[in-house]
Every structure is written in C-alpha cells, then in structure tokens.
Input
Amino acid sequence: MTVFLISTILVIYFLVLLTISYFTSKADSNDAFFVGDRKSPWYVVAFGMIGASLSGITFISIPGSVAKYSKEFGLTPADQFGYMQMVLGYFFGYLIVAFVLLPIYYRMNLTSIYTYLESRFGYWSYKTGSAFFLLSRLTGASIRLLLVSSVLQLILFDEIGIPFELTVIGSVLLIWVYTNRGGIKTIIWTDTLQTFFMLAAVVCTVYLIGNDLDLNEKGGFVKAINQSGFSQVFFFDQWNNANYFWKHFLGGIFITIGMTGLDQDMMQKNLSCRNLKSAQLNMVSFASVLIFVNLIFLVLGALLFMYFDQTGVGKNVLDISNPRTDLLFAEIAKNGSLGIGVGILFLLGLIAAAYSSADSALTSLTTSFSIDFLDIESKSIEIQKKIRKNSHLLMSLTLILIIIILRRFSNDSAIWMLIKLAGFTYGPLIGLFFFGILTKRNLIDKLVPLISIIVPVVIGFIWYFHGQGDIEWLGTYKFGAELIIYNSMLSFGSLFLISKSKS
Output
C-alpha cells in the first residue's frame, strides 16, 4: 500500500465517524452522553459491543499468540488455540453479569455503577471502586491504543517522518472530536459500523490467505490447521503451567466479571438499553457470538504463521532479538503477495477494532470521573455540561501521556499484558462488589482503600519474585490468567476481617 492510499483511507474513515457523530449528538445533553437517553436498541448495542470487547489487541495479538519464532528453533507452537479455554470462561462470566449484576444496576437505576458501593458500604468504598476503575481503564485503553499506534507507525508514519508521539496525539484527539458531544449515544452507532468493518476484515483476510495457500477447497482449512501443529485447544496435562485449562477457564470467568460486569465502559452500553430484559438479551447474544469470532481470529493466526513458513514474509519482525509476533499480521498485509485488498482490509479492521474500544473507554472514563469524583449530578445543567467537556479533555490528555510512557517500558505481548493488569486492578473490585452481593455484613468503610491497595501489592510481590526464581515453595508453578482469582479471593477474605454483622 502507498502512503497516499493509507492516508486517504484514514481520512475517509474519520469523515464517516464525524458524520455519524453529527447526526447522533445534536442535543448535546448529559443524559445522551452518559446513558444514550436509555433508548438504545439491544441488538445494536450487542453488535457494537463485539468490537468494543475485542479491540485492536484481539485483532493483532490473538493471531500473534498462536506460535512463536526464534533464530535457534524457528517457528514453534506457543499458546496455539489455548485462548479458547479463556473464551469459554468468558461466556459463563457474561451469564453471571447478565443475571446477577444487571438486575442490581437496573433496580437502582444507576448511571455510574460504583454508586452501588456507596449505598451498600459508604463513601470510601464508593471512591475506591471508582478509583480502581479509572486506573484499570486508563491503563487498559492505553495498552490497546499503544499497540494500534505502533502498527500505524510501522506501516505509515515512520515512512513519512512523523514521530510516534504525534501519532498518539492525533489518534486520541480524533476520538475526542467525534465523542465530545454525543458520548455513549454516538458510540453505540459508531461501534456498530466499526464492528462490521472489523469482522468483514478478518473473515475476508482468512479467505484470501486460504486461497493463496490453496486451502479453500472442501475441508482444506480444517485439515491444514490440524496438521500445522498450532491447533491444540485444551491443555490438561500440566497443572503448574500458565496455559492449564482450569487457570484459563476460571480466569476467563473472573476477567469477564471484572472487565465487563464491574466496568463502567461496558455497563454504560448495557444501561443505555430500554429495560433489563433488553440488556440481558443483549449480553447473552453478544456472549454467544463472541465465541465464534474469537475462533476466527485464532484461525487467522494459524494461517498467518503458515503463510510466513511458506513465503518468509514477516521475517523482519520475527527474526530479531525480541520477535514481535503481534506485528506479523501488519507486515504480511503490507508486504505480502496477497494483493492490495488485504492491506486495505487490515487497515480498516485495525482502525475499527482500535477505535471501537478506545472511544467507549474515553466516554466511560469521563462519566465515572464526572459523577464519582466531581459530583456532577448535584450541579446545574450548564455547569454539568462544562464539567463534562473539561473532564473529557482531561481524560484524553491523560491517555496520551500514559501511552507515551508505556511505549518506553513495555515489551510483552499486548493481550497478556492486559490480562495480567486486569488481575491486579479488577481483582479488588470483584472482591468488594461480591462481598456486598453475597454477604449481609457491613464494612469499616475507611479501611476499604487500604485493603484494596495491600492485596494486589502482596500478590504482585509474590508473582514478581517467583518470576525471578526466588520463591522455592512455589516450585515450577507458572502464574497465568488466574492472577485475578487470587486477587479477588484475597480481597474478599481481607474485607471479611474488617466487617461486622448488621446490628
């Protein structure tokens, strides 16, 4: 693809988003920004949530996690299709969200879900929940945008001499422009368009790579992937390994509860539905479709490595001291022999995947900060609007800063970086919310922030020092997605120590 073509696609794409924003944000009201006037059709929300849930990380890192490459051993299996173990956990987690958490949120008519904690425990529990969400979403959205900005830098901006910092600033400010007025009402519809582009991109790319590898005849795909050595789904043999089934499955349940059910970003979309039944229907249908979508991404990953093995395209991102398997898709799309169509599809899918999650993250951050910390609902309408817009700009600038910092220090696969992060930031949230749901005990409210900080710090020290080989009693045990379980359960148990029976 030429610089001119890539630039043209980007300009047209954002003009479309701005057009949608114009028609969905005419009212420019706080109710439209925060909850979409509570009139969003459930099927539109469900479809858009696919894109918001997957993000650019799924688009790039999931395919890249299937195999690994080294100069010494060449191409060898990595996680293979083991990510599907976690996806199955996601599904059951979504059911818990739909039938345990959503009824509570709708019964209390919440805008910020963290106000539940105030009514249940008190001021400090409420602020702790909100603070952990802000930390989780700011870093999570930053990791997602970091990956996408890095890819855009690779395929376009390095070539025209624009530094990475300007790429990040431009990307975030474009999101700010089209979400500034309409908020969640705009995002419901832009995410629908972006999900379509993302799914169309991955399905068409799978077909085109399969065609190039002569796999599109009947049964060709299945046979080739089975013979590739990259297709193992279930890992039951070694319980101490990070990809052991129960670690992935149970970790997936907890991650979904935290990153969806206790996340203002995802719940804000659900709360924009007309009623509880619509929101539950949205969640169940979304969860079902997500299983098949993730499977397609893993199939794409296997095909990308098979294509690399046959053609050698992508060697410049793999045959280095720190191989970047998450950039293989970008490199093949840019320099492979698959035609300009794959390059265009990749670019559209990448942008769609990235911005469908980043725009909703920015809006939810604005919502939580405005309601939970600035007490926007107690102000006049005019003051509310001013606070909302200033908060929206502040969150945008904060995202830019964090992305630039992460760029300098991160060298991990983005998907696993995000999952590890979720273990430490969403774990205390799960413990706090479910202590309120599953028990009738009260907490010493002022001690909740202390507990919520101490627990992930303790788990973090154990995880870090064991990684250095310094904790003998853990033996060869490898931490994986279950980090979030340890954080959640220890948080729950610690909260019990500072609780008392209702008088």
Notes: The chain has 20 helices and four strands.
